[in-house]
Amino acid sequence: MKTTTDTVTTGPVWDWAAGHGPVTGALSATTGALALATTGAATGMPPAWALAVGTAGAIGHTISTLRERLSARTLTLRASSWLLGAGWTTWAIADGPLTWQAIGSLAVLGVGIGTASRSVSLYEDARELELIALADRQVNAEIQAERRTLAAEWVERIQRVSGVTVTVLAIEKWPTATGFTIDAELPGATTYDRIAKDSALLSADARLPHGCTVAATPGIHQGRVLIDISTVNVLEREIPYPSDYSPLSIHTGLPWGVRSDGRDVLVHLREQCALIVGPTGSGKTNMVHDVLAGFARATDILSWVIDLNAGSAGLPWVRPAFDGDGTPDKEARSGIDWLASTPEEAELMLDTALRVGKHRKVVYQDLMAKENTDLLPISARIPQIMILIDEGAEILTSNDPKMRKLAAKIVEVIRLLRSMGIRTVLTALGATGAVLGNLMIRREAKTRVCLTGGEVEGMDLSRIFQGSRGLRPEQAPYKGAGFIGTPESAPGLFKSWRITPNQIADIVRATSPLHPRLDEPSVKVAGPDYARRWDSDRTAWMRTTDGTGTRPVPPAESRPARPGGLNLSALRDAPAPAAPAADEDALAAQFMAQIDAQFGTTTEPGTPAEDEPEQPRGLNLSAFRIEQQDSEARTAALAALLAAGPEGTGASAIARALGEQHGTSRQTVVGWLKEWAEEGIAVRVGTGTKTRYIHHRHTPGTPAEG
Q1: Where does the pLDDT of residue 437 fall: very low under 50, low under 70, confident under 90, or very high at 90 and above?
Q2: What distance in Å separates the CA atoms of residue 497 and residue 275, rounded to the nearest whole number?
Q3: Strands (E), 87-196
Q4: What pLDDT, on the 0 to 100 scale, is given for residue 561?
Q5: 228 close to 214: Cβ distance less than 8 angstroms
Q6: pLDDT tens readout for residues 601-635
Q7: What is the pTM of this model?
Q8: What is the DSSP string of 4-37?
Q9: Residue 487 has pLDDT above 80, yes or no
Q10: What is the C-alpha separation between 48 and 407, in angstroms, rounded?
Q11: What domains appear along the chain, each with residue ranges and CATH number?
Q12: Are 389 and 306 contacting, i.e. CB atoms less than 8 angstroms apart?
């Protein structure tokens, strides 16, 4: 069977909507005149009609040319073309258009029109460019005049306030129209900090609005200074988190807010840790969510969160990934990779991070040699682990044994695992010496944020941003506003984005496909501590649905039975355990004998006093008996108070009365009396050593009871 292939021939494509150029315009005019003249001569049309039509066309094009504000050349060409064409047509109708004389003259006329059109077109283009350049020169002249005025104003101001005479080299207006930057040369051996230290004075002298500052930073070399002057306060308004959830990377920077000039603040955490300081009410929690949003959008970051305050910093990023019944959704992934809310879980996390980091140092030696680098190449295949520790700086300064143990592990992570892609973000409540006294924090946390919210107490900015001058908490009196400094940029004002719980849920769902997974070698060494981090027994506290903030207690029949033996939970509401088996009886008896030998035991209620063996003081396992004794002593003390009558009595007298039988201390009685006074059972009279308490039945105005 023979198949044929259709071939399509291509030729010139005509654009019938396009305007005429010099050639097509002349050709159209001459052919139109020839056609009209031939038709008019054949039909006997009066020649004057062609002249009248040409005259009308010339008048119409003259009007349109004037309206378009074109040059006189264009006006002359258009009018003359119509008149010459009309004149030739009138002559050709009268004498015949098909003579060599008529055709030759028409051809000459067409060439002349085309040549003139080309010349006029080039002239119009040049004229238009000149008009544009003239307008630009006028605008530039106005801008330069404004800049010269600004330059003169600020040169005079800096000389008057700081005593430094600068030479302004350039002024750049910010694209956001919120301020400008002055590039100036310093005189002699003057440094930029001569101006930086007078930031507040210069701002006041310029009468800048609140929240606007004058910030001096180093220029292109040590003899130049860049002076950023903000004129519009962008810190006072609430700025929502951007709706763009596009992928990010640890290598290209993570956005944490906006500067006073409207630009995004980008932080680079591949090798750096970060410190976020903010007192209560400054917007620190919202800033933490901004940080986690950037981590969630990154394709090469796994975020782990430690928040010993019930995990509140990480819960909004975890809950959207749970089904309605509180179980993890296999289709959706949490916004964070691990959440620890207890010291025990935090210790597991930090131990896992240390194992992973140390194992990476060995297993990826070939990869680092291939890439010719001593830093682990972080990518989606080998993600960086960012551990955010809410109020982590306070953990480092705590004296609690559990916290000190966690602090040691945090410092070890910061100290050892930089090259292996494990970094931390710590938060703190205040910029105090106790928080910033740790050398490891000051050395490694070069990305620093201080949210002031107008708070002055405990906001020593010189401790956070060493060497920076002219920074004052009063410059950022708004919630979510503060200062940020990175190794790439000098400390300056910024505003964190406002992010809402609903938007967090949207980010979790939108970024779920972007999250990387821990690399296989790290997963193996992380072990079950990491693999079982989302097991139901370790995440049950996240799925509280009773509205009380506590984990629901399972029914008694569903609880596992406790083994026989020592039971220290006398006050627990669980039923008594079943009798142990024979071998368990022997083990329990042996265990109790060891306890008795070392600590001694207490006699259970109901045992005759004369049968009690003499035992050393030690561990008391009878919680019920202690509670019963306290209740009896409290009742006896209340009876003694009532028996004292209208004169009342004191704590010492009641303690002596109870001493022989109950052995109650004076401090305990004082606590009872204060409690009864608050409840209205007793009335306190006198102060100091003359303080006594009267039962309310004996106070005036209280009716006696029969």
Answers
A1: low
A2: 18
A3: 167-173, 179-185
A4: 43
A5: yes
A6: 444 444 444 444 444 444 444 444 555 566 778 88
A7: 0.60
A8: --------PPP-TTSPP-HHHHHHHHHHHHHHHH
A9: yes
A10: 107
A11: 22-134 (no CATH), 164-230 (no CATH), 254-542 (3.40.50.300), 623-698 (1.10.10.10)
A12: yes
